[in-house]
Specification:
This protein has twelve helices and twelve strands. It is an alpha/beta fold. It has a single domain (about 5-90, about 170-305), classed as P-loop containing nucleotide triphosphate hydrolases (Rossmann fold). The strands form three sheets. It has a six-stranded mixed sheet with strand order 6-7-8-3-9-10, sandwiched between helices. The protein has a four-stranded antiparallel sheet with strand order 2-1-4-5, covered by helices on one side. Strands 11-12 form a two-stranded antiparallel ribbon. Strand 1 and strand 2 form a beta hairpin. Helix 4 packs across helix 5 and helix 4 runs parallel beside helix 7. The mean pLDDT is about 95. The structure holds adenosine-5'-diphosphate (ADP), iron/sulfur cluster and magnesium ion. Iron/sulfur cluster binds near residues 278, 287 and 304. Adenosine-5'-diphosphate (ADP) binds next to strand 1, strand 2 and helix 1.
Length: about 300
């Protein structure tokens, strides 16, 4: 059984400009211990899918479909049960770690609080566990740094704190939404290395959200490529990397390899004004008549009329 099984997830927002379909029939699975990457350009719906799983969507969102976690549909859970599940079984880290920390509480106390919520232990034990967690995520001199405040931590160190808090409850699923995007390149590599080691050490499943294919390839077993709210390709990371089926995935790979401009030519369509047929057709060099009229179906992990997986 999959740990996470998302089936036909639809998330939309009613806005003045029209309905924004940020997640359109999104379906994918993550097995126990598997690392899956959700990739796509900015604005294609990656964070919204993650927030849907956590049930932390903004109030104006409408959601339908199924999100099975260990066989239970998260969307039908009572709010209280969901709150328990969040943090304990599913934890999430974000792009801007500093914004997620309380500026007036010491970093150590915040980690200890996360431990206490899940373990119902004494102050002394939670403090020791927090220090251990700080050491585990590579924060030097954890005893000393325990009583320091978030402003005394660099971006990379603050992200380590967020990872420590996320791991406090030994979650079976960790969602990391662009965890290294706001960091310097060398620090990015260190955080990726840390995440990679931790998920394999604890056999945690990982949903990594990134627009960086290099990061995804280093860490993930499988990949889901999103474009304008929908999935256009999914499969094993090694297969997709070697033999991308969809023209958009091919363009993303070329852009990442440095052989082409750093980004895919053209821009993502407005989600309120999606083109008919294949959503990628205005940017696709292979586009034909049928592409402009009929939305392709997903076949063998690729959603394209012309390009097929060999
Ligand atoms: N509260 C909201 N109201 C209306 N539209 C929203 C809201 N939140 C996100 N969106 C829209 O949903 C789309 C997907 O956003 P997001 O998931 O954040 O993209 P990504 O993480 O892939 O960059 C975007 O077009 C964004 O503008
Ligand atoms: S369906 Fe047509 S427009 Fe869309 S990606 Fe395939 S070839 Fe390009
Ligand atoms: Mg995002």
């Amino acid at each position: 059984m999959s740990l996470l099984d998302i089936v036909n997830l639809n998330i939309s927002f009613a806005t003045r400009a029209g309905v924004v379909q940020a997640s359109d029939e999104v379906s994918f699975k993550i097995r126990k211990g598997e690392a899956l990457c959700l990739i796509g350009e900015s604005g294609c719906g990656k964070s919204i899918v993650a927030l849907g799983i956590m049930r932390l969507l903004p109030g104006n969102a409408r959601i339908s479909g199924k999100i099975f976690f260990n066989g239970r549909d998260l969307l039908s859970l009572h709010k209280k049960a969901m709150r328990k599940m969040r943090g304990r079984d599913i934890a999430m880290i974000f792009e801007q770690p500093a914004g997620c920390l309380n500026p007036v509480l010491s970093v150590g106390n915040q980690i200890a609080e996360a431990v206490k919520i899940h373990e119902n232990c004494s102050g002394k034990i939670s403090r020791q566990r927090a220090v251990d967690l700080m050491a585990l995520v590579g924060i030097p001199c954890p005893c000393k740094r325990y009583s320091q405040y978030p402003y005394e931590f660099s971006g990379g160190m603050a992200q380590r704190v967020m990872i420590a808090m996320a791991l406090a409850s030994h979650p079976s699923l960790l969602i990391a939404d662009e965890p290294t995007t706001s960091l310097d390149v060398t620090i990015q590599a260190q955080i990726i290395e840390l995440l990679k080691n931790l998920v394999s050490q604890f056999n945690t499943s990982l949903l990594l959200i990134t627009h960086d294919l290099g990061v995804a390839a280093q860490m993930c077993d499988s990949v889901v490529v999103m474009y304008a709210g929908g999935i256009i390709e999914k499969g094993r990371m090694s297969d997709v990397f070697k033999n991308p089926g969809h023209p958009y995935t091919q363009a993303l790979l070329k852009a990442a390899s440095g052989k082409e401009p750093a980004s895919v030519k053209g821009s993502v369509p407005e989600l309120t004004r999606l083109p008919d047929g294949c959503r990628f057709h205005p940017r696709c060099e292979l586009s034909q008549d049928i592409c402009r009229k009929i939305m392709p179906q997903m076949k063998k992990g690729v959603k394209c009329h012309i390009q097929k997986k060999t």
